Fold each of these.
Amino acid sequence: MIAFLAALNVKGTQESTRLNLFLAVADLITQAVLVVIGMAWSSADVLVTMSTSGGAELGDFLLGSRSG
């Protein structure tokens, strides 16, 4: 990987810019897919209940768990 990036750097900045743009777009798409999967996987009523009733403590939130 390091050799590939070094060769790309020697080749020129235009190719390097294209690769960086491609990787940035791929990263954005990956994050969007993960958000959609997370929203589809979780139960909406649990999310609404926890956000409106204060059902989670800060520690529970940081651990990703729910008390009770």
Amino acid sequence: MDPYDGQSRFCNGRAARAAEGRNHYATARMTATDRTISEVTRRAIADRTVGHFDWAGRFSETDFLSRLYDLSLLPSYDHRSKTAAGDIATHRERFCDWNDDWIFYDDRFALLRCPDAEFLRFLAETVHPVVRPWPEQTDWIVVMYNEQLRVDGWQLVPSGEISGRPVFRPERLDQVPEVFEEPTGWDRVDREVKEILTRLRQARAEEQFQGVGHLCRELLISLARAVYDPARHPPLDEKSPSPNDAKRMLESYLAVELSGSGNSDARKHARAAFDLANSVQHDRVATFRDAALCAEAALSVVRIVGIVSGRRDYTSLEV
């Protein structure tokens, strides 16, 4: 059943709508059964939203919410207004006497208790290209949302593009197969993976994005040291790599462990990931996207080497 069908009750007279509508709408939300995203997660997202970005983006809050709800069918909480549209305009656009987080705690929208589909639709709309035309801010918001949503098995993923900008939709994590779970068992590598993900979520400025690139390079050095054996992995150019020369150590390692023309793409991938990590480290105008691509490339090398080394074996899978 469409959760908005019940809003038709509000059409039968303004007085009845104001009196009966509020109770009906709140009750309908609280008795919904399709909620897997906990209130803890929803409040965490609310806390990270307020003070960090304007959830309505380039729109007024009335115009933004009108993209999701028919505000003329929702009651006013103020006797001076006839509908929610007037109510919101009065208290958020004229007098600004409601708190910035009001939307999360208003019973007419009940974002802390509504069905998952409604809550996720609200989040996806806040990063729609029409609403938020700033790519770097959108990237950061999606990372933040997914950090919280992942605990309850959800994430926002690109579903298409408008003028080259991604449009996001919700997706259950169990729809995406996860071949192997962390950690790898190499202690330093595992610590650095966690640090990269933490720094990526926190990064806001160019030097912080550069820092993620530096950490990715350090991760690949730690990985190379964990697997490289000079006796087993002779250098390709007869010159032994230095202890910090992750690229040459990994090339030597993969040349032996992934020998043959059939594995040439995997070897190329490892080389490209190191080059990407190194370029972001020295990019003085690095963006979130640069840092995120660098992290993804470096982590994929960790996974590839984990598989090649036997740390990611068939016996690691739940069967």
Amino acid sequence: MTGNTESITVIVPVYIGSDLSSFRTSIRSLLNQSRQPDELVIVLDGPIKEICWTYIVESLVLNKLPFSVKLVCCLNNKGPGYARNLAASISSSIWLAIHDADDRYARNRLEVQLDFPDFARHF
């Protein structure tokens, strides 16, 4: 991990059971953040549905987003813990935010996280 003290990476694991409609809604909540992430790391935890793959490539990887996107592919499903740790290991930010494929963030979630940097130092 490198980066400045205000940088934040959002980690999104996706697996074959991920529902496209929920995933789109999840990503929309990320794109509507009051404070955008500096980086998005999507981990394909094993094979995924073709429709999800198409959405990821066309809407997230090839589209011009206001932050960088990294895509990591695992040949076999290893579980969300493995996927999150893998993403964390290639993150270029100080702060990490876990965002599962069916999560919906409050509009100020990332902004609030960065407002409490001292809180994390106590753990």
Amino acid sequence: MALAFTQLPPTCSLAQSPVVFSVVENTSLYTENQFQYTCQLTYWTGSTSVSGSYDYFLTKYPNTSGVGIFDVSRVLNSALNQLSFDYSSSVLYFNAGFNYQYFSASAYYSASNTPTLVSGLYKSLDGYALFPEPINQNVPSKSLFWPLMTDGPVSQSVTSNDIGSIGVYVGATGATAPTRVVYSGSTGNGSVAVSGSTDSTGQIVRVALAPSQSGFPLSNLNDTSTYTIQAFSGSTALGAKLYFDVECAYYYVPTRIMWKNRYGQFDYCNFYKARFNTFGTEQRTYQPQLGSWDATTLTYNTAQNNTQRYIVNTNEQLDVNSDWLQEGFNEIYKQLLVSDEIYWIYDQPNNLVKPLAITTNSVKFKTGVNNKLIQYTVSFSVGQTFKLII
């Protein structure tokens, strides 16, 4: 009688989508009264080694195939609750031990008080998979640009004043780890060395993406410049290149939006067309009692207001319009629509941002075949109101 795995997570998974262990008892023991598979799950940050007890004890009845299927994604995802803006490397280590128990002689019988089948070491990122990607697919297989943690698009635009960074996965994922990120452009070439550690906080690094970001290795970029970014291991290219055009003069001041993508890192887009800010208020009023009712005679103050505001809240709406785009932007716009962390970089020289919540609930996505160039309007509510109320 022994337990065996029928399904294991990949080396690196995304915690918002299924992260599955499947186990089976390879005899017919699972037909015993109230037979259950048990899973003792632990997760942690820091070094690869951990000591102490398990965090969760999970049980599953066998399915019709006699297998116990444990999806631990919700537990892992609940622990990845820090802002990506503050923490670039949102990574959890986890492992699990398995056993079984069944009811016999008025008590539960277990093969052992400790797990008889123990998994290896795995890691999970703050992100999600997409349909129709298979269950337990390793993360590097999801992106053409990996270890650059983005889905593109392959061609993008920036201004010479833009800031921004891109997440680079430097840990072990079952794929080659990068040693540098190479920038090639019309003004020359540059390279930034990257390295990681086994600590969870050293699995992802962020390198400069845009001309004004600190550490950007190309100089003298102007409105006619182009450049590419690509990860390398030594002299071997890893993943596809990202292409950037530095935009020339524009009529409106661009609105630069950044949002957490499906890998837990940030994508950026400049909205070059008109921007509209709408400032509104909501209020509640009451009618105060006027007059000197506690005095010897009744009088009133002519400066008093017969309608008093006692609660006044504010709200701000931001509406932005994209330039004419290629169809490749459709996919990352979908990630913008579902993102739970969005910012407006309203002061690029000082790297100041305002948190946003997207209020656009639906977008009619167009194709380049039917619409040679595509333009979108997106609306947000600003997450910090006019009043500082904590």
